């Protein structure tokens, strides 16, 4: 029983971390802080609260509600996990598209290419990196 509650708590934390990450990556650049919390036990169900230092765009809330609807449909077995996963991933990509494009543009920068090649080479030749990835200093 204890292991099951630990597993449930880990899944809950992963869920909230994932939502916070989606929320964080909504905007490109700048100093962004975001937080997500789950309040359970409300009469109408659970409440997912979002906070961000740049505010919450209404269309973003609408898109997140669609994702939550899909998650609920999978949890209640109205949708298969496979179908739900595909639809949810598409919605997340749509939400974070600007950030994804920004990252892809950065990969075209020759300085980034040189840094990545240098770090990969160091990883291949230095045994300490194999033992402790944090020393790779990306």
Topology:
Elements: H1 2-24, E1 34-39, E2 47-52, H2 58-75, H3 81-95, H4 97-107, H5 110-125, H6 127-131
Antiparallel strand pairs: 1-2
Helix pairs in contact: 2-3
Please give a structural write-up.
With 138 residues, the chain is mainly α. It has 2 domains: 2-96, no CATH class; 108-138. Helix content is 64%, strand content 9%. It has 6 helices and 2 strands; from the N terminus they run αββααααα. It has helices spanning 2-24, 58-75, 81-95, 97-107, 110-125, 127-131, and strands at residues 34-39, 47-52. A two-stranded antiparallel ribbon has the order 1-2. A hairpin with a 7-residue loop joins β1 and β2 (47-52). α2 (58-75) packs antiparallel against α3. The longest helix has 23 residues, at 2-24. It is extended and about 55 Å long. The chain starts with a helix and ends in a 7-residue tail after the last helix. The relative contact order is 0.08. The mean pLDDT is 76.
Strand runs, count: 2
The largest beta-sheet arranges its strands as: 1-2
State the low-pLDDT regions, or none: none
Looking at the structure, what is the overall shape?
Answer: extended
In short:
The chain has 138 residues and is mainly α.
Please tag this protein with its features.
138 residues; mainly alpha; 2 domains; two-stranded antiparallel sheet; 64% helix; extended
